[in-house]
From TrEMBL:
<feature type="binding site">
    <location>
        <position position="201"/>
    </location>
    <ligand>
        <name>Mn(2+)</name>
    </ligand>
</feature>
<dbReference type="GO" id="GO:0009098">
    <property type="term" value="P:L-leucine biosynthetic process"/>
</dbReference>
<dbReference type="InterPro" id="IPR013709">
    <property type="entry name" value="2-isopropylmalate_synth_dimer"/>
</dbReference>
<keyword id="KW-0432">Leucine biosynthesis</keyword>
<dbReference type="GO" id="GO:0003852">
    <property type="term" value="F:2-isopropylmalate synthase activity"/>
</dbReference>
<keyword id="KW-0808">Transferase</keyword>
<keyword id="KW-0028">Amino-acid biosynthesis</keyword>
<protein>
    <recommendedName>
        <fullName>2-isopropylmalate synthase</fullName>
        <ecNumber>2.3.3.13</ecNumber>
    </recommendedName>
</protein>
<feature type="binding site">
    <location>
        <position position="13"/>
    </location>
    <ligand>
        <name>Mn(2+)</name>
    </ligand>
</feature>
<keyword id="KW-0100">Branched-chain amino acid biosynthesis</keyword>
<dbReference type="InterPro" id="IPR013785">
    <property type="entry name" value="Aldolase_TIM"/>
</dbReference>
<dbReference type="InterPro" id="IPR050073">
    <property type="entry name" value="2-IPM_HCS-like"/>
</dbReference>
<comment type="subunit">
    <text>Homodimer.</text>
</comment>
<dbReference type="Pfam" id="PF08502">
    <property type="entry name" value="LeuA_dimer"/>
</dbReference>
<dbReference type="GO" id="GO:0003985">
    <property type="term" value="F:acetyl-CoA C-acetyltransferase activity"/>
</dbReference>
<dbReference type="InterPro" id="IPR000891">
    <property type="entry name" value="PYR_CT"/>
</dbReference>
<keyword id="KW-0479">Metal-binding</keyword>
């Protein structure tokens, strides 16, 4: 069996999904869950991109134990220095240096000649090697790069000290036959005295990101890069859960294994979905709500007689419908603390006290508090700790002309502001009031509600996406509450917080 290393870039490429903005606390929480899931290397961010990115990479480096922590850098000394600074306290640091090598990128984006690109790779990979033992190099847009030039770029990086070569299909242009052949070509033709690990990095523009990654593995790649739930720039990246399951279920074919703890898959997916605000489509492989649902009578009959008839993955293998005992209002602090620990939360005394109080108030309203409820509860707690705007009262009034009126107050950190507005429905009235308080006029791009769990006493989870049409930017927010209107208001305030930070008042 070959060991395939998993490199997760949910917090870097995944955060490039429109509307996704994780704060540092959320990033650390995701990083810890990724470690539990069995990820070998996490790309924690792009340290030079912003102070926030730098702080998050640093915090992750200080908080994880076994995972290698990587930081992204362009071929620029300042980028490499900043990554070095952010990763100083990582137990296992790694740098990921990249430079585009395709004709279109070199000519129009970089405005560099091929010779200048080769010289820059040599200079900057060598420089990175003076600071990091593990240096990864990516020739960006590799799949649209002339093959012999790509080989030259890769060989230059290896000669300068890179031991990991990542081959990005940056624009999702390749297909399995072509991408696999590219790995074979590079692996057969590079020269190196030491072992070089080849890695796949695929985007899903043509829906082939997972197939391409698996083709790379068939052709010698020993590492796969991707994100949880496949989130990422445009159509997203390779969904790591899909690769992990494909390797496991079809080990007869791939003859490969990974360190992924499969029954942590659903939990990891749920956490990323909640914190990113990006919902998982119902029909998504492995973790979608319908992935284990059998609708037709013939299928149901077959599965009842023998699940093997139509089920190649048992739901419990990936942690779906695990038979875990729900908590209730009689559950004590110890049971609660133990459950939080199994869910991957390491809470200090203060956090535990606050979480337990929230749990008790939830258990008063809900017969059974499931794992999903607890994760939702923690999302709420983490949002409140990091929020700039705190939602106060939300009051609704029916207006005689058939429209709705709302009065909303928000604590902005400096003062508590209250405004009222009308709308053709309750939600519009609430959102108009919030816009008035914050002096903004974003476009409401998306709004949807889902229930955190099944049952009549389920909490509502509302997702909101606001857009700044002028700059083509989006901001997600989620709100969880028993009351749909309250959850809707929370989600809008959360997305507005990001909107205000990045775009400012209208
Ligand atoms: O898609 C891409 O080319 C990237 C690189 C930075 C590796 O994300
Ligand atoms: Zn990418």
């Amino acid at each position: 069996m070959k060991k395939i290393q998993f490199f997760d870039t949910t917090l870097r490429d995944g955060e490039q999904t429109p509307g996704v903005n994780f704060n540092t606390k959320e990033k650390v929480q995701i990083a810890k869950q990724l470690e539990k899931w069995g990820i070998d290397t996490i790309e924690a961010g792009f340290p030079i991109a912003s102070v926030g990115d730098f702080e998050a990479v640093k915090a992750i480096a200080e908080n994880v134990e076994t995972m290698t922590v990587a930081g992204l850098a362009r071929c620029q000394k300042a980028d490499i220095d900043r990554a070095y600074e952010a990763l100083q306290h990582a137990k296992h640091p790694q740098i990921h240096v990249f430079l585009a090598t395709s004709p279109v990128h070199m000519e129009y984006k970089l405005k560099m000649t091929p010779e200048e690109v080769i010289a820059s790779i040599k200079e900057h990979v060598s420089y990175a090697k003076t600071k990091f033992e593990k240096v990864q190099f990516s020739p960006e847009d590799a799949t649209r790069t002339e093959k012999n030039f790509l080989l030259k770029a890769v060989q230059t990086a290896i000669d300068a000290g890179a031991t990991i070569i990542n081959v990005p299909d940056t624009v999702g242009y390749s297909n399995p036959t072509e991408y696999g052949a590219l790995f074979k070509f590079l692996i057969d033709n590079i020269q190196s005295e030491q072992e070089i690990i080849f890695s796949s990095h695929c985007h899903d523009d043509l829906g082939m990101a997972t197939a391409n990654a698996l083709a790379a593995i068939e052709n010698g790649a020993r590492r796969v890069e991707g994100t949880v739930n496949g989130i990422g720039e445009r159509a997203g990246n390779t969904a790591l859960e899909e690769v992990a399951l494909a390797l496991y279920i079809r080990k007869d074919f791939y003859q490969s294994e990974s360190s992924i703890t499969l029954n942590e898959t659903k939990r990891t997916s749920d956490l990323v979905s909640r914190l990113s605000g990006v919902a998982v489509p119902r029909n998504k492989a492995i973790i979608g709500a319908n992935a284990y649902a059998h609708e037709s009578g013939i299928h149901q009959d077959g599965v009842l007689k023998n699940p093997d008839t139509y089920e190649i993955i048992t739901p419990s293998l990936v942690g779906v419908n695990e038979n875990s005992l729900p908590l209730g209002k009689l559950s004590g602090r110890h049971a609660f603390a133990a459950k939080m620990e199994t869910l991957g939360y390491q809470l200090n005394d203060e956090e535990l006290k606050d979480a337990f109080k929230r749990f008790k108030s939830l258990a008063d309203k809900k017969k059974q508090v499931t794992e999903d409820d607890l994760i939702a509860l923690m999302v709420g707690q983490s949002q409140e700790c990091n929020e700039t705007y705190r939602l106060g009262c939300v009051q609704l009034q029916y207006v005689s002309d058939g429209s709705q009126g709302a009065i909303v107050s928000i604590d902005t950190g400096e003062e508590t502001k209250t405004e009222s507005a009308i709308g053709s429905g309750s939600i519009q009235a609430i959102y108009n009031s919030i816009d008035k308080i914050l002096g903004q006029k974003p476009e409401l791009k998306e709004y949807y509600i889902k229930a955190v769990t099944g049952g009549e006493d389920a909490q509502a989870e509302v997702h909101v996406t606001l857009a700044d049409t002028e700059n083509n930017r989006q901001f997600n927010g989620i709100g969880i509450d028993f009351d749909v209107l309250q959850a809707s208001a929370k989600a809008y305030v959360k997305a507005s917080e990001q909107f205000q930070k990045e775009v400012g008042k209208a």
